[in-house]
Design a protein that fits this description.
about 280 residues, alpha/beta, 8-stranded parallel beta barrel, 10 helices, about 15% strand, globular, DUF72 domain-containing protein, UPF0759_sf, DUF72
């Protein structure tokens, strides 16, 4: 099954009845069956957050939880934890309620652009997989060395053997900081993340980089191209999770709905949409 969703649920104005609505997540879950929780990347969250999110969503709604940045090397060793093992323990305790709810589809480990294909980093991946034993984990690279000539097949073989879920990315193609589209899948799950194709924004490291990085709207031809890929991926994996991350300009929700229509999907079990004041 192909499940379409967005990264985060708090920044998609077109989905809410009003900006003061008590639960944007509840409203979001009336439109899409999955969402990426990205606040978990910036902090190890209180367990109660996951308890509440699980309660606010329909029974068959699912979350892709982004792993804490300290676990993927984004902090470059700067941390208040004594060691990496203690950090893993804290993260797993944090997400415990989400795992217990049965609504956690994947934990996404997205590695930084400087995480290149070396023996040291391969060992780091093995360590991570061991620490997350029994939990579905997806692997996303940003350094192209993992898919360079002569390494692509080895990387895919390693990931499959170690039990990682593959992440297929659509993103600007730059010499550093991005990977090509590698449309592969194995097992029962594959993750797809649509970051847009704004090369200038992707390379921007200025003060407004968050507003520019994923400022992009996919056109119909590009979505049709991805429709074919998604159908092909569904033949290789039972569940295909697709996340639109091109929301710097608020385009993700529209593109996500457009893709749902192109695929002819009608999701059941979504939250009931709020009716307007005079509607019956």
């Amino acid at each position: 099954m192909i499940r379409i969703g967005l990264t985060g649920w708090g920044d998609h104005p077109s989905l809410y009845e009003s900006e003061t609505q008590a639960s944007k997540l509840e409203s979001y879950s009336s439109h899409f069956p999955i969402v990426e929780c990205d606040s978990s990347f910036y902090a190890i969250l209180p367990e109660k957050n996951y308890v509440n999110w699980a309660k606010e969503t329909p029974d068959n709604f699912q979350f892709i939880v982004k792993a804490y940045q300290g676990l993927t090397g984004h902090l470059r060793g700067k941390s208040n934890f004594k060691n990496i093992g203690e950090m893993f323990d804290a993260f797993q305790a944090s997400i415990g309620p989400m795992l217990q709810s049965g609504k956690c589809a994947v934990i996404l480990f997205q590695y930084p652009p400087w995480f290149d294909c070396t023996r040291k980093n391969i060992d780091r991946l093995r360590y991570t997989k061991e620490k997350m034993k029994g939990i579905p984990v997806a692997l996303e690279f940003r350094n192209p060395s993992w898919f360079s000539a002569g390494m692509k097949e080895k990387t895919l073989e390693f990931a499959e053997k170690e039990g990682w879920i593959h992440t297929v990315c659509d993103e600007p193609q730059t010499e550093t900081g991005s990977i090509p589209i590698v449309s592969a899948a194995w097992g029962d799950r594959v993750l797809v993340r649509m970051h847009g194709r704004n090369t200038a924004g992707w390379l921007n490291h200025g003060p407004n980089w968050r507003k520019l990085r994923c400022l992009y709207r996919y056109n119909r031809a590009e979505l049709e191209e991805w429709k074919s890929r998604l159908i092909d991926l569904e033949r290789k994996a039972k569940d295909v999770y697709v996340l639109f991350n091109n929301n710097s300009g608020g385009d993700a929700a529209d593109n996500g709905k457009q893709m749902i229509r192109l695929l002819g999907i009608n999701y059941s079990g979504l939250a009931q949409k709020q009716l307007g004041f005079f509607e019956v």
